[in-house]
Design goal:
Blueprint: E1 9-13, E2 19-20, E3 23-24, H1 28-36, E4 41-46, H2 53-62, E5 72-74, H3 75-86, E6 90-93, E7 112-115, H4 124-135, E8 140-142, E9 148-151, E10 154-157, H5 160-170, E11 175-176, H6 182-189, E12 199-203, H7 206-215, E13 219-222, H8 253-256, H9 271-278
Parallel strand pairs: 1-4, 1-12, 4-5, 6-7, 7-8, 8-11, 12-13
Antiparallel strand pairs: 2-3, 9-10
Cofactor: Mg(2+)
Organism: Catharus ustulatus
Pfam families: Hydrolase_6 (PF13344), Hydrolase_like (PF13242)
Length: 296
């Protein structure tokens, strides 16, 4: 077995890992402060389409997180990058609060369709307009295809079902730009000066955080917060690199000597899991959890 390369960068999911809506995961601020004391570059990645990067930053700093705007990479940013590359004019099915991230992108006489989480736009007239544009040759761009996301009062439909409906109706395939796409993780690492093999992704979604990162050549660490559920009715085929009691602690210890006491109580796990991760071994079985994908 070849030796693992030294860890140089950590990508951290947001909703479900550091916070849930307007509440921080208990202990997450302190865990992040301790992570920053390690010799690694930290970036924050999210599929959120409900708000602009600036609004997201204000929310996070208001919750006590020490985060800079340049450290956040969102699926909205990935979508904008693709629109600029393709030089198209999108019909934007996104929340109005996300529109600032598309400032300067022309939308008159649209010749592309972009779908994010936009409950106010998911009605017959707007969906039919998107349907007709796609039939005329407009590319369909999905910011992500989450089946659902978590709110305090329970799970809610994500944009995925609506994207899939347009795919079915038009017999076309959407280009997805957010997690779990390999390109999303590679773009997020751009500027860190490290290869995927030198990075780890920490998140609460086994398929989109852990599986997506692993497909990009990174390690994936699953936390027991947010969408993680010990539910036998949902099985995943993704095997995380670890399910530690604290992903911001012992999971990183073999590579950058982050102390194990980074743990906070909501990222609870078992001692055997900690031992497997801190000794560099992988879990042999996949976790049981709900296989949606976060607006996170």
């Amino acid at each position: 077995m070849s030796a693992r390369r030294a860890l140089k960068a950590v990508l951290v999911d947001l909703n479900g890992t550091l916070h849930i809506e307007d509440s921080a995961v208990p202990g997450a601020q302190e865990a992040l402060r301790r992570l920053r004391s390690a010799p690694v570059t930290v970036r924050f990645v999210t599929n959120t389409t409900k708000e602009s990067k600036r609004d997201l930053l204000e929310r996070l700093t208001g919750l006590g997180f020490d985060i800079a705007e340049h450290e956040i990479f969102t699926s909205l940013t990935a979508a904008r990058n693709l629109l600029e590359q393709q030089q198209v004019r999108p019909l934007l099915l996104v929340d109005d609060k996300a529109l600032p991230d598309f400032t300067g992108i022309g939308t008159d006489n649209p010749n592309a369709v972009v779908v994010g989480l936009a409950p106010e736009h998911f009605h017959y007239e707007m969906m039919n307009r998107a349907f007709r544009l796609i039939l005329e040759g407009a590319p369909l761009i999905a910011i992500h295809k989450a089946r659902y996301f978590k709110k305090k009062d329970g799970l809610c439909l994500g944009p995925g079902p609506f994207v899939t409906g347009l795919e079915y109706a038009t017999d076309t395939k959407a280009t997805v730009v957010g997690k779990p796409e390999k390109t999303f993780f590679l773009e997020a690492l751009r500027g860190t000066g490290c290869a995927p093999e030198e990075a780890v992704m920490i998140g609460d979604d086994c398929r989109d955080d852990v599986g997506g990162a692993q497909q990009a050549g990174m390690r994936g660490i699953l936390v027991r917060t947010g969408k993680y559920l010990m539910d036998q009715s949902f099985q995943e085929t993704v095997v995380p690199s670890g399910i530690p009691p604290c992903a911001l602690g012992p999971a990183l210890q073999p590579c950058c000597c982050v102390p194990a006491h980074l743990a906070h109580p909501c990222w609870g796990g078992d001692k055997a899991a900690e031992n497997r991760v801190t000794t560099g071994l992988e879990h042999s079985t996949a976790p049981q959890l709900m296989a949606g994908s976060p607006e996170s």
